[in-house]
What we know:
The complex is a heterotrimer of chains A (328), B (258) and C (250). Chain A has helices spanning 5-31, 87-90, 139-169, 172-179, 181-217, 221-226, 229-264, 269-275, 277-306, 308-327; strands at residues 39-46, 57-60, 63-75, 78-86, 98-103, 110-115, 130-134. Chain A has 328 residues and is an alpha/beta fold. Chain A folds into three domains: 32-135; 180-270; 277-327. In chain A, a hairpin with a 2-residue loop joins β2 (57-60) and β3 (63-75). In chain A, α3 packs across α4 (172-179) and α5 (181-217) packs antiparallel against α7. The N and C termini of chain A lie far apart (151 Å). Chain B has one domain (37-257). In chain B, 89% of the residues lie in helices and 0% in strands. With 250 residues, chain C is an alpha/beta fold. Chain C has two domains: 4-88 and 167-248, Rossmann fold (3-Layer(aba) Sandwich), CATH 3.40.50; 98-165, no CATH class. Chain C has helices spanning 49-56, 79-86, 104-109, 122-135, 151-163, 181-198, 209-215, 233-237, 242-248, and strands at residues 11-20, 23-33, 38-43, 64-69, 72-73, 89-92, 169-173, 201-206, 218-223, 226-231. Chain C is globular and about 50 Å long. The B-C interface holds B 36, 121, 124-126, 128-136 and C 54, 57-59, 79, 83, 86-87, 89, 91, 93-100, 110-111, 113-115, 161.
Amino acid sequence: xxxxxSQKIKVGVFVVIGTILxxxxxxFIGNKQxxxxxxIEIYATFANVNGLTLGNNVRYSGINVGTVSKIxxxxxxxxxxxxxxxxxxxxxxxKDAIASIGSDGLVGSMVVNIIPGKSQDAKPxxxxxxxxxxSRIGADDMLxxxxxxxxxxxxxxxxxxxxxxxxxxxxGTLGALVSDTLLAKDIxxxxxxxxxxxxxxxxAITNINAIISKxxxxxxxxxxxxxxxxxxxxxxxxxxxxxxxxxxxxxVTKNIDEYIQEIKSGKGTLNYVLQDKDLVKNIDSxxxxxxxxxxxxxxxxxxxxxxxxxxxxxxxxERQERKEAKEK
Amino acid sequence: MxxxxxxxxxxxxxxxxxxDMTFFAGRFFKEASSSPFEFKELLRQCYNMGNRSxxxxxxTGFILGLVFTLQSRPTLMQFGAQSWxxxxxxxxxxxxxxxxxIALICAGRIGSGIGAELGSMRVTEQIDxxxxxxxxxxxxxxxxxxxxxxxxxxxxIIMGDAIALFGSALIENLKGDVSYLxxxxxxxxxxKFSDIVPATIKSxxxxxxxxxxxxxxxxxCSKGTVGVGEASNSAVVYISMLLFxxxxxxxxxxxxxx
Amino acid sequence: xxxxxNIKPVLELKNLQKSFGDNHVLKGFNLKLFExxxxxxxGKSGSGKSVxxxxxxxxxxxDGGSINIKNQDITTMGHKELDLLRTxxxxxxxxxxxxxxxxxxENLEFPLRRHKDKIENFQGTEILVKEALENVGLADAIDLxxxxxxxxxxxxxxxxxxxxxxxxxxxxxxxxxxxxxxTAKEIILLMRNIQKKYHTxxxxxxxxxxxxxxxSNRMILLVDGINYAEGTFEELSNSSDPQVxxxxxx
Lengths: 328, 258, 250
């Protein structure tokens, strides 16, 4: 029953230490601090770390593989970060892998994303390696760019509005052009032709593309020439641009088409006038006024007829009328 | 030298007390698992503790939910996230604030009550009288009380949580024009079993801690009326500390398994 | 009195030792209680009387020595045997020690709840409780709470509770403490009547000389942890030893 004091103290110390150990173990397990796994350190250099802090996760192809363990400013514009990465996953990270800093959700904490490199036969990273980095635009930059774009768009639309108004009013060369239906027909014809041409070009480009990709795989003389990746890429770029322009042309023609369609359906100046409701209303009320005025005049006339001063004159007029009717 | 000595002896007595409490807990399990069971007394204690704490827990829970919602509203409104109120309040009350606050309240209500009751029974030799009468006072007094708190606290906490949510719904209804139906729909949408079950398991341990420390302090109360006051006072202090330690561990365990 | 030497004692303490830390309370105390006698143990406050009597019922475990009750050594006894033996012993606590959350009836029933074998049926419990209360003259207080009783009545209820199992040995720890002289006298007379009625052996711990004079057949003086002097009230009160005289001087 009765336990000696030294026994109690021993058990007390055991319980306290046990509790502390339990909490510590739980903490490390819960935090997945990689305490019990073997780690290696790799490095990457950035110009801007966008608020990355110690302990932020490091992801490789979206899997958490480690944490940021050190952030050092080497000189202005160069920040080296040290990452602790699990050894067992590090063998999948090749030397040409690219590190970038991104955010975990819109307002989440920052993460280091390691993207696999392009080449197949690069060696895995070893401890102390520095991998390539790529500074992506942070959310801040993105938002500020978006802001200027917005402002520009606002200016553009206001200008566009002025121009279109002028066109509608028929002012300027373009306005004259637009109001001229004959010319419009001609333009339309031209546009249709243009469309056909672009479609043809597009098909041609696709064909060329297919040929090029074929050439890449075939071991022909052309392939030797073209599989030089640099020139091949350039050619590819050229074609890509071409394709883009033709698409643009297509877009423009479509727009013009719509415009003409609108003109045809009679949305000219008169239309504008008719659509102005205020004007219509004004005209309407004027008409009513005029009507009223004529009515009043009629009444005045009638009143005059009955007036004794003018009766003689009116009677004379009547007689004259009758006489004329008889004569007829 | 003198100060070092007193610090040493204080540390020693601290560890001795924890060790003694561990033996006490061990004895509880030993005695609780052997017959006879004082079933009638257990029921009486359950009724006493549950019933006597009911009003206190209800009022505390209600005010807790009320104040919590009232204080969170401005912040959430800054984000325009008032519609998140129900899920935020229900999660934080059910997972953390409800169990801890209500357990602390019960530490003050039940823990100190047990400490004072057993303490005065010890001082007036009633515990000795029981032993002489052939009734094991540990079984009759300690086992029943610890079991009662362990059983009652989860119930009290669940009820307190519910009333706290009602308080919160009241504020949302008055200030935010949220109907009770909508509020509780949101609450039940936000709450999962993985929120309620760990909190309930945690509250079982809270109850055990309250009963254990209260009984320990009262059962080994030193002589005199000063001893009784000391027993009930230090019971509350120890329980509060222990509650936070348990909560701390529970958070980590929940973190791993859920 | 003359036949005492031949009878085996119902209770015997040999060389009882108990210390709390550096405080050696009992240093080899010896005591023999014979059947049918009233033995008074007197001593100053803090001389270890209460410790001694608590050792006797197993509430405190002695550091050394042996305690024999009815030829059984209780220091080596298990819980169950001890509980069984305790039904043979009544114990009146210093401050009555009534359970204040229970009524008088429940207080009296409490010792019976673990010894159902001693009572034939449930009706037996009722009868035993009534009888015990009648013995102390408090039959109408059965449904009161201890807090509603006066100090003297509480002591009587406690006495009734000690007697309910009809024990062979009754131990009184300071039975008159905290009571006014008249009530104390009532309690003492009650004790004597009960002793006569049930032929029990009584061990009375007290520092009250009046109590000792009325009730004692034999006395032991406990001084410095040992039995300092032994004898009848007359023998001790006429002793020339200054330590003994100190108890009887008023």
